[in-house]
Design goal:
alpha/beta, Collagenase (Catalytic Domain), nine-stranded mixed β-sheet, binds zinc ion
Length: 333
């Protein structure tokens, strides 16, 4: 593990060099993670609003950001990757005292119709493993808390568990989510990483790992490092609504844990959410401040709620319904 960590630190330097829009200001890397502002306080409603219209997540909340699309499409091109384009980025945020903001879905400019993006079973263009969806954990960056005094956590087994939780839902679906091990490959379409070969098609889903907050600021805009826990980038085959690649980043600016201790962010809960995006699920549920004390109400509680509301490692009703709707008729091999 020490060797891997040394590798990570060495390679992070080259990662910085690969970014065009690096911020020179490292003040964002201070240790303000030690306070307890990430402890949420919310009530939970077990029922969906019978009137409907409670779904404020997903496309209804989507914003268009031409600048982000240009930036990311430029990165794809710089890396020599062809045939795919940026479709959307979904951010997952921490709710902090006095700063209530849910995650956003940011679409590329030409996605005004905001159609759902879907994986195509057995898609030869992405070298599909039959009807399976594959994921790859990039080991050098799979360590949380490398930029703060908290214990360093090897998150790879946690990422695996978070994929398994979705995979275990398959029941009658032909979908299996399987892990790929491809040494020497960095499964990103946006960032370069040392001498690693960029290959977003090494697996369908690239679990990139924990990146410095400054990279979140550089790509998602100033301030992202302080609020965005994780982000899932969806890419489509150019000119289509068919998913080509999804990659997931975690923000190492935050205090991560493997137990969701108050004051920390539970890795598995966030990974379960991000993996949901990778499967094609949008944000779900209505989160609102219901009184002057800042008490939050969420209805319904779901893994795919647009903000982190504390540990949630089990899929809820709407999460399962989304899965069944999308994958219930997924073909079997
Ligand atoms: Zn999200």
């Amino acid at each position: 593990m020490l060797t891997k960590l040394t590798l990570k630190h060495t390679l992070l330097y080259t990662l910085f060099l690969s970014l065009l829009f690096m911020s020179c200001d490292n003040s964002a890397l201070t240790d303000d993670h030690q306070d307890n502002r990430f402890v949420p306080y919310f009530t939970e409603s077990g029922e969906m609003n019978k009137r409907g219209h409670t779904h404020t997540g997903g496309t209804e909340q989507g914003i268009i950001n031409e600048q982000l699309a240009e930036l990311i499409n430029g990165k794809i091109s710089e890396l020599g990757i062809t045939g795919i384009e940026f479709a959307k980025a979904e951010t997952f945020t921490a709710i902090q005292d006095g700063n209530f903001q849910t995650g956003q879905t940011i679409f590329a400019n030409d996605r005004v119709k905001q159609l759902p993006f879907e994986w195509v079973p057995g898609d030869a263009r992405r070298l599909a493993d039959g009807n399976n969806l594959t994921y790859l954990v990039f080991e050098p960056l799979a360590f949380a808390n490398t930029g703060n005094p908290l214990p360093v956590i090897d998150a790879e087994p946690i990422f695996d568990t978070a994929f398994s939780t979705w995979n275990n839902l398959k029941k009658n679906s032909g979908l299996a989510i399987v892990k790929r091990e491809v040494p020497g490959v960095f499964p990103s379409a946006i960032l370069g990483f040392g001498s690693f070969i960029n290959d977003p098609f090494a697996a369908d889903i690239g679990s990139i790992g924990f990146l410095p907050g400054s990279i979140f600021d550089a790509i998602l805009g100033p301030g992202a490092s302080g609020g965005v826990l994780g982000v899932a980038f969806t890419f489509t085959f150019a000119g289509t609504d068919e998913t080509a690649h999804v990659e997931i980043w975690y923000n190492d600016e935050f205090p991560w844990s493997d137990d969701g201790t108050p004051g920390t962010i539970d890795i598995e809960s966030v990974a379960l959410h991000e993996n949901g995006h990778a499967l094609g699920f949008d944000h779900f549920g209505r989160i609102a401040i219901v009184n002057a004390n800042g008490r939050l109400n969420v209805a319904p509680r779901a893994v795919m709620n647009a903000a982190y509301l504390g540990p949630l490692r089990e899929l809820r009703g709407t999460d399962k319904a989304s899965f069944n709707q999308r994958y219930g008729s997924w073909p079997k091999d």
